[in-house]
Amino acid sequence: MIFEAGAAVQFCAPARTYDCIIVGGGPAGLTAAIYLARFHLSVLVIDAGSSRTAMIPLTRNHAGFPEGINGQALLERMGDQAKRYGAAIEDGEVTRLRAGPDTFTVTTVFGAFVARSVLLATGVVNRRPDMSEADHDSALQRGLLRYCPICDGFEVTDKRIGVIGSGEHGAKEALFLRSFSADVTLLDDGSGEMPHKLAEEIAAAGIAKMQGPVGTITIGKDVISVETAAGKLAFDTLYPALGSDIRSELAVALGAEASGEGCLTVDRHQRTSVSRLYAAGDVVLGLDQISHAMGEGGVAATTIRNDLAEQSPLRRASTPVADPDTR
Ligand SMILES: Cc1cc2nc3c(=O)[nH]c(=O)nc-3n(C[C@H](O)[C@H](O)[C@H](O)COP(=O)(O)OP(=O)(O)OC[C@H]3O[C@@H](n4cnc5c(N)ncnc54)[C@H](O)[C@@H]3O)c2cc1C
């Protein structure tokens, strides 16, 4: 696709039109790729390599893996499965989507590609507490820092839990975790307004509330400590409940409808409000879970297949075709 001539980079005309380009190679995008490839459709996944699943040391709530599975290993299995049926997977970031009358042009730093449909499976990015990248990643690997109470609240049953967050979001996360432990502390920097009813619930549930700025976070062998207005507090685990940034900007730039937070609005079949543009996984409003992302990926892929078949019937040639590019 790219020819380098000295410092200049020239792009030649795209060689083929894919049935679908999937932006994002997490559980949603890779599930859709498996389905689409098995529908005998041409599919290209372009992935910037920052799936939230890759951050999971060991997921224990994902069905089918009684001993748990490492997130990166799960992604590798899914990628292998998609490639086995002919899906192409490229590393890189999609920087722009352009919609034409019948196709999309998908621009990346390594070239432009054309597709009859696009699935956006770009996920979200968690806002992180103020700590170095090295400390953050080490704490995450050791279970001192966690982002997903639904996923791993069980692992901190009866432990000392700290929650960094304010307003409704922080309060709800602390209350959710209260069903796993009697020792929950909400570290509230006051940046959000907590509804009176939730403040009452926090007090009634016996959740300690520390008001004031959250200071330096340090990690020890089995402990994570936070400087607060009341001094240094130690926890077995810390949950940042600071919200997340939704990676929906490519679709929003095309005019796709989104919630105030940026989650893409889809119909029951994962269609966005832009024709032939679909979305699945965390980038859509819903339960931010691997199983949910996979489910939406499967629904999106089947919708894409059926919508493409309505535009022009999908009919298998009676004799096998050697080169898939000639389909
Ligand atoms: C620490 C942690 C632990 C978790 N534990 C669990 C668990 O145990 N069980 C569970 O069910 N869920 C868990 N989750 C949630 C789970 O990881 C997510 O719900 C899941 O990854 C969502 O899948 P997705 O495909 O929608 O998005 P992601 O997996 O985030 O993948 C999105 C992909 O899109 C790519 N992308 C984004 N923008 C572009 C672009 N412009 N161009 C190209 N590529 C792009 C990203 O690089 C990324 O690879 C956890 C999350 C975290 C952070």
Tell me the overall shape. elongated
Largest sheet descriptor? 7 strands, mixed
Distance between the termini: 20 Å
> What is the strand content?
25-35%
Count the beta strands.
18
Question: pLDDT under 50 segments (min length 5)?
Answer: 1-11
Would you write up a description of this structure?
The chain is an alpha/beta fold. Helices cover 26% and strands 26% of the residues. It is built from eight helices and 18 strands. It has helices at 27-38, 71-84, 133-141, 149-152, 167-177, 196-204, 249-253, 290-311, and strands spanning 2-5, 8-11, 17-23, 43-47, 88-91, 94-99, 104-108, 111-120, 124-126, 161-164, 184-188, 208-211, 217-219, 224-228, 231-235, 237-240, 244-246, 277-279. Strands 3, 4, 5, 6, 7, 8 and 18 form a seven-stranded mixed beta sheet that branches. It has a four-stranded parallel beta sheet with strand order 12-11-10-16, covered by helices on one side. The chain has a three-stranded antiparallel beta sheet with strand order 13-14-15, with no helix packed on it. Helix 5 links the parallel strand 10 and strand 11 (184-188). The radius of gyration is 23 Å and the shape is elongated. The two termini are 20 Å apart. Flavin-adenine dinucleotide (FAD) is lined by residues 23-29, 46-53, 55-56, 59, 61-62, 93-94, 121-123, 126, 140, 147-148, 151-152, 247, 250, 281-282, 288-291, 293. Flavin-adenine dinucleotide is lined by residues 23-29, 46-53, 55-56, 59, 61-62, 93-94, 121-123, 126, 140, 147-148, 151-152, 247, 250, 281-282, 288-291, 293.
